[in-house]
Every structure is written in C-alpha cells, then in structure tokens.
C-alpha cells in the first residue's frame, strides 16, 4: 500500500489545483479516482482560465457611432451634438422662497391709506398643489394669498374698450371667520383682446438646459409645454430659442411661427447637461429680442427654468437692474418655473416683477395647458402696465383694516402718483381680486386706544355712507403717463349675510381662508378646513375647466396631510 502513497498524493494535489483554477468544472472525488485506476498517472493541469471581459462603457457614454448626433446640449464651451449626461438625483431641500409676515391690522385714525401693486402671478397655487399631491403640507413661505386667489378667473363685468381697459367691482359682506368684522372685495377685469385683433408676438424662448433640468418634470415637461404654445401661434408671430447651461447659445434664430416643424424640432433636440449660466442666457435672449424688435407687436422673453443660476452673475440686484433697463426699451420678461428640489422662487419673482411679466409654475401638463393655451392671450398680451390700487378708508365707518396678501407688493402712499414707480401688469381678459378685512367703528378692535392719543374729530355726516374710496392708476402698454379711475365703497353695496354675497366673492374669500390657514392662521379666527370646504363647495358655480373642483380636493388633502414628508428608509 505504501508504494501507492506518492501517486495518490500527487493526484490529490493536481485535483486541488484544478478545482481552484477552474471552480466551474466538476472534478472526480479522489477516492473514486484511485479506486478505478490506482496506477494511472496524474491528469495534466487544466489550461489557464480566459481573462475576464472588459467592463462595459458607462450607459451615458455610448460609442460615437451610437450617439444621437441631433441631441443639442449646451456645455461649458459651446453648443454641439453629444449624448445626454448621466442623470443625477434631484437635489433635496434647496428650494428658495422669501418668507413674509402676513399684513397686520392697521388703525384708520393713524394710517387711513393702503397702497399696493396688483399681482397676477399664479405660481404659489401650483406650489401648493404640487406639495399636497405628494401628501405633504406646503411650506408656509410658498403660500402667497393673492396668488392663490388670482389663480381663478372671476366673472366681473368686462371692460368695453382697450382705451379704458378696466371695470371695477366692489362688494361688502360679513367676515366668515370673525364675527363683527366685514370683508371688502375689490375686483377688476381687463379688456379682452379678440384673437383677430391681437398684436404680433416676437417671442424668445430662453431655456435652461443645465444638468439640474434632467428630471421628467423639468426639461421634458418644458418641451411639451412650449410646444403647446407654439401650436397657438400663427404666421404673424416669430419665435427664437436660446439655451443655456455652462454657457449660452442660440439654438434657433427668429423664425416665423408658421414653420412649426422647424421650431418644434429645435425644441425636441434639446438635452440637459452642465452648470447654469442663467445670466448669460438672459443677456443673449434680450439681444435676440432686440435684434428682431417689433415696434407694433409684443416683444417678450419667456424664461423657462428651475431657477438654479450658479454660473456668472447670480446677484438678484444685478439681474433686476438688467431686466429693468430692458423693460424700458419695450422688451418684457415672463417666467415659467419647472421642478422642485432647487427652485429659486425668490429670484424668479424678482425677474418677473421687474420685467413687466408674470411668474407661473408648471407642475403638470394640465397647468401648461391652462397657462399657455387656455390663457395664452392673458399670458402674452398686456392691456395695461404699472397698475396700482390705493384705498382710503373712512374713519367715520372703519376703525381698522388689513389687506389679505400682497405682502411683497406693498407701495408707499406717495408711490401711487409717481409714474416712475413700477407696478404689475394685467393681461388680456385677466381678473384681479383684492380682499380687505375691516373692523367697523364700534366693533371689537385688535388694539385699544392709546392713553395720550388725541380723540378723532367727529366726521362729516356725508361721509357716513361710505366705507372708503378706491383709486386705480394704470398706463396703457405703449404709454409713459398713467390714467386714473376711482369708485367709492358705498355702504349700500353691503349685504347682511355672507350667504347673500356674490358667488365669486364667496369663493375668493374661501380661497383666502384656505391660504391663510396654510400660512399659519394668525388672523383666521375660528376658520378651519371643514368650513373652507363648505364655502368653496357652495360657491363653486360654473366650472368649465375644473379648476374650482380641483381646489375642493386640495382642501380635503390638506386636512390629513402631514407637515413633513415621511423619512426615507
């Protein structure tokens, strides 16, 4: 037996080496091999294993022959055809909003005049909807009461001519959240320009194609949205496209809107990648708009972005000064916001307000349709600019008042008559609503008398029939001189019961109550979400597009939504 031990040892060693070198090949058990043929020589060692295959190339870096040559990406050096960069995760928690304190009650004896710029932006409503759709309450800073209210159209009497583009509508009714107080509703509706009479549009789409725009609710939704607007234009109009990322460049020179295929093709070829040189893009877009300026048309840059400017000029003051100067030359700016995670609302509001345009936030294709199709003439065509409202309250009938919303639009009293002070614009057919909550003389005030204040002299008897006086100042789109319209707030307009107030007034008040609750409810009295539901449901009225029905669902969602999203595990 001893003579077989060397052979067995050699065989076991060879089998062990073979199994280590090629574990996927089955080997015989050593005992079975020796029993079958104890004198057999050991098997030769197996061939070495093949080398491992090279790692596959990254998914976003396909070989040149497979790359889409028509994809347009704005890079740090130029615009060229290259493949899409790897998709990065969306930033979290970097949205920038300007927090504001709700307007307080003011004593008429000390400060009888309230002055503010109108606001037709609607971005805040879309922010609220986007948050509640994800089953989380919106941040209070995202809620601007006036934008929530003015998201909805109201059936005020239309203006009869473009030369006098407004009518005013005033109503007075009991406050639904605090007994003894009243609500004054001031509504205006702009003149509706008929499609055949609208001016030509010279539009420059300024599109953010930086890496942060890769998410489905950013650049892909943006392209769909602007495509819908292009379909609404006709041969009278021109469209140009500037894209920006690390630097900026012209994607499409001014092109007649009748060449829809060419415009839509340029949009479709855009891809995202790089950093965000937004300021350089704005400069190039304005230069393009100026080069094709139409003195008899509407000249507008439409900025579509998630608002994340991080290359070049990023100072709000510098950008504000630039768009103000271009505004004086007749080129206006509108802002379309997309996506969440790094949205710079503070900057977008600054640009829109100072560029004589509105700021909208596009979170769904339905919102794109509302803003760029159903309300296209309102979005593109101004019928008045620098629109200001000033209300003087009568100390004989009103002890205190507060304006609901418009915190970022407040003006000094002397600004009302100063035509050099910029204010908001109103588009074709747009309605604007402002709500004041007032404490009548003799009612429960929010603050008592001062010990050393002089008593207010008894007012003239004639003034007792009015709560106040409303003045509206505006300029026609091509004018530099303002005009004035005014109307008293007669007590004869007052109704005794909230249920008897005009339906649109009740709905707007319900929206205001909802917004104030989302902001913290400092002045909401005994209002709650159930009462808001009751108000807006009863005042829904004719709702052809379903906007008001959607609000009802959002109020229901707010009742159960947590203040913070759940932690991801």
TrEMBL record:
Residues 202-380 form the VWFA domain. Residues 39-61 have a biased composition (Pro residues). Residues 26-64 are annotated as: Disordered. InterPro entries: CLCR, Uncharacterised_YfbK_N, VWF_A, vWFA_dom_sf, YfbK_C. Residues 1-23 form the signal peptide. Keywords: Signal. SUPFAM superfamilies: vWA-like. Transmembrane segments: none annotated. This is von Willebrand factor type A domain-containing protein. It comes from Sphingomonas floccifaciens.
